[in-house]
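User: Could you check the structure of this?
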Amino acid sequence: MTANDRNRYAFSYNSLDVRNKNFIFKNFNKSCSFKSNFSNSTFKSTSFIGAKFKFCSLYNVNFEGCLIRGVLFKKCNLTNAKFINSIISATIFDKNKLTGCQFINCKVINTEKLRLLIPKNNFVNTDILESYPDPQGFSDELLKVVENLRSNKFIRKSTILHRKKGQLDTVSISILVSQFGETFLVKSLPKIAQEIKNEFHTLSYIQSILNNINNNGKLISPPRFCHPWGS
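Assistant: Sure, the predicted structure tokens are below.
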């Protein structure tokens, strides 16, 4: 059984009550949840690449600092759900209950239908993009530094900064640039490549390390996040 298979089974909930739970630093990639109740739960710094939620209650759920790429939400109750500081890409919202659902400080890419389903006021400081930004908007020096991060297998496997077919994730890069600036990133990202020695799944992991460098002037070893069970 591969790691992806283990994640799929570990975080696939079939007709289960998982209300009021905290899922922090988890990997829901390729999972499939069906008729389960996640109401009032929090997903923080969690990846959902290729995940499926069908007929699930996600009432009053918070998705904070999450990577939501290629996800299917089908006939789910997303009433009062909040997506905060998250990246939502190529995700399908199909026949869901969306009253009060909000997107706060998010980047939404290639999920155009969402604009038609959610009132304009429910998008707070959120960018809705038709495609990933052009790499030419960044300096050659920064692009080279990010490209070199592929040498770290955990950074490469996370797909946070690198997409398929050799492409860079320019949305993640743009978020880091807006937060830290290109000069700081060119200097600090190579230090991260030397230190990351365990799996991670969201941009918030890299942001937390860069914050430590920015605040203390030196690298603090990244935390070893729990894996794979929810609390």
